[in-house]
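Handout, section B. The chain below has 250 residues.
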Amino acid sequence: MTATPSDLLREATGRLDRLASDAEGGALDDAIALLVDALDRGGVIQAFGTGHSEAFAMEIAGRAGGLIPTNRFALRDIVMHGDRETDVLTGSLEREPWVVDELMATVPVGEGDVFVIASNSGVNGSIVGTALWAKEHGHKVIAVTSLEHTARVEPKHPSGKRLSEVADIVIDNLAPYGDSTLEVADGIGAGAISSITAAFIAQLLTLGVARTIAERGDTPPMYISANIPGGDEHNSVLEDRYAGRIRRGA
């Protein structure tokens, strides 16, 4: 068996090529239209992920070259912005459905907001529960998940549902069951791919929204790097338009 850097590159580029091709063919158009409509109505894009999928939310919200009307929230917010003590923040918290009400009580959600939720497995209690909370409160939900993986595991939410079964739009991150793409020993895998493909999906969505807004003659509300002259000033002016609705942590 082989598991070389070139093998991992092949696994990654094959999936990225497919995602780009699908996007060119319109596979993300409905998701992009949903995001643009939310921004046009004064809404914010609410991004959420747990575990390594939190990296997806970081790609959506609060980064250079990204959209300003975005908000990233995380399970740790029940400590940072809620009443819980730090000892609740264990690795198993993402599996708990009870955390959702406490979590969402800390999130500045507006009426026109849309949720973008990433989870490779798409079955943990906090993920499914947050998607259900969003739907119950009248918000659209876009899911980024592995359709191959989620179909092979049991939901951990009392509803018996998967993220893919709750969301309005589902985007497949093309990760295989178990996430790893290369075998390094019998039954031992490496080369996890979902973070790579999810980050690319996040950027494809951002690009699609920005291009849609620009093509109609408007200026997309985008971040400029804070590490170039004028970046902080540009960003602050636009962030002020969403004061109290978007949160930027350290």
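Note. The mean pLDDT is 94. Compare this with the example in section A.
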